[in-house]
Design a protein that fits this description.
Length: about 350
C-alpha cells in the first residue's frame, strides 16, 4: 500500500477538487449528479497524469529539457499568431485559432525540441558531467554500471571480433575478463546481417547472435549493451570515442580500426595478434635439430626436447640416443597439458652430445 501512497493521494485530491469545483458552479442548479461527475472527471485527469508520469520517467533528462523548451516556444509562437489575427477576427474564431495553433505548435515544440537538443554539443557536456557525478556517487562501483564491480578494465566489442568467433574460446578459458560492453550500433549491424537476403551474410549474422548469447551466459551479467551514440560520426570513430569515454580497451580483428585506435591512444586487443603470438614455434614440414635423450613409449621411438621444453618424439631413433639429429616435423598433438611434436629422421650427425 505504501508503494502506491502518492498515486492514491493524487487521485483522492483530484476527485475532491473536481467535485468541489462542480459543487460551487453547478450544485444549486443541477444537483448532486454533476458534483459526482466533476469528481470522476478529476479522477480521469489524475489517471492521465499518472500515465504521463510513467512515460516521461523513462525519457532521458535531455529530451525532457528539450521538449519543455520546445513546448514553451511553441505556445509563445501560438500566442503571437493569435494576437496578430485578433485584428481580423474575434469571439469563437479567435479562441479556436489560439487553441489549434497552441496544440499544433506545442506538439511540434515537444517532438522537435526533444530530438534536436541531442544534436547540440552542450548535450555531450551534460552527459559527461552526469556520468562523472554518478561515478563519484557510486564509488567503489564502476562508473559503467552499478552492477559491475571494478575488477577489470572494460572491453568494447566490435563487429569483426564477434563474427570471428574466437573470442568465445578466450572467454571460456578465462583469458578474457569482463566487463564486456556491446554498443547498440554494433548489435544493430549484426541484426542487419542476420536479416540480410544474402545467404552468406545471413549465416554470419545468425552465428554472431548465437555467439553473443553464449558470451552472455559465460560472463553471467558482465556483458552489457550500451546505448551511447554520436551523431554524424562513422562507426569506427564512434567505437574509438566510446573507448575513450569508458576508459575501455577495444576488442577487434579489424586491421584498419586497430591502426586508427592506436593513433587516438586507445588500447586494442587484437585477436589475430594474440593467436599469432600463440602459434606453434614449429609447424609440420619444419626442419629442426634435436638431441635424442631417451627412448619413447612405442617401439623404436626416440625422445628429445626443444629449448622451451616441448617433447619431440622421433620415429626410428631409439638406437640414436645421445646424438644430435636433423629431423622433419610430421605433425603436432595439442592437449590441455601442452603439446607434443612428432618428427621423422632426415639424417644423423656424426658427432655425439
Amino acid at each position: 500500500m505504501r508503494k502506491y501512497f502518492f498515486q492514491s493521494l493524487l487521485l483522492g485530491i483530484s476527485f475532491f477538487l473536481g467535485a468541489g469545483i462542480f459543487y460551487y458552479f453547478y450544485y444549486a442548479e443541477r444537483g448532486l449528479p454533476w458534483v459526482i461527475a466533476g469528481g470522476l472527471l478529476g479522477v480521469a485527469l489524475g489517471i492521465i497524469t499518472l500515465y504521463l508520469e510513467e512515460k516521461i520517467r523513462k525519457l532521458p533528462l535531455l529530451k525532457i529539457v528539450g521538449g519543455s523548451l520546445g513546448l514553451i516556444l511553441g505556445l509563445a509562437l501560438a500566442k503571437l499568431i493569435s494576437s496578430f489575427f485578433e485584428i481580423f477576427t474575434a469571439g469563437v474564431w479567435q479562441v479556436f485559432l489560439y487553441a489549434m495553433s497552441a496544440l499544433g505548435l506545442g506538439y511540434l515544440g515537444i517532438m522537435l525540441g526533444g530530438k534536436k537538443i541531442e544534436e547540440i554539443v552542450i548535450s555531450e557536456f551534460f552527459e559527461r558531467l552526469g556520468e562523472k557525478l554518478a561515478s563519484k556517487i557510486s564509488t567503489p562501483v564502476s562508473s559503467i554500471s552499478k552492477k559491475f564491480a571494478r575488477k577489470g578494465t572494460p572491453k568494447i566489442l566490435d563487429t569483426s571480433a564477434i563474427i570471428d568467433g574466437r573470442i568465445l574460446e578466450l572467454a571460456k578459458t578465462g583469458w578474457l575478463e569482463g566487463p564486456l560492453l556491446l554498443p547498440r550500433i554494433i548489435l544493430e549491424e549484426i541484426q542487419m546481417l542476420a536479416d540480410s537476403t544474402d545467404p552468406a551474410k545471413r549465416a554470419k549474422g545468425r552465428r554472431a547472435l548465437d555467439l553473443l548469447k553464449e558470451l552472455k551466459e559465460t560472463f553471467k551479467g558482465e556483458l552489457r549493451i550500451i546505448d551511447q551514440n554520436y551523431k554524424n560520426l562513422p562507426t569506427d570513430e564512434k567505437l574509438i570515442k566510446l573507448c575513450s569515454e569508458f576508459s575501455a580497451k577495444l576488442v577487434t580483428t579489424d586491421y584498419n580500426l586497430n591502426k586508427m585506435s592506436q593513433l587516438y591512444g586507445v588500447e586494442v586487443l587484437n585477436i589475430n595478434e594474440l593467436f599469432l603470438a600463440l602459434r606453434p614455434s614449429v609447424r609440420p614440414g619444419d626442419l629442426i635439430t634435436i638431441q635424442i635423450i631417451k627412448e619413447g613409449k612405442e617401439r623404436e621411438q626416440g625422445v628429445g626436447y626443444l629449448e622451451d621444453g616441448t617433447m619431440v618424439v622421433v620415429e626410428n631413433a631409439k638406437h640414436l640416443i645421445g646424438k644430435h639429429l636433423d629431423v622433419v616435423v610430421s605433425h603436432l598433438l595439442h592437449s590441455p597439458t601442452g603439446r607434443i611434436v612428432f618428427a621423422q629422421l632426415r639424417e644423423v650427425k656424426t658427432f655425439n652430445a
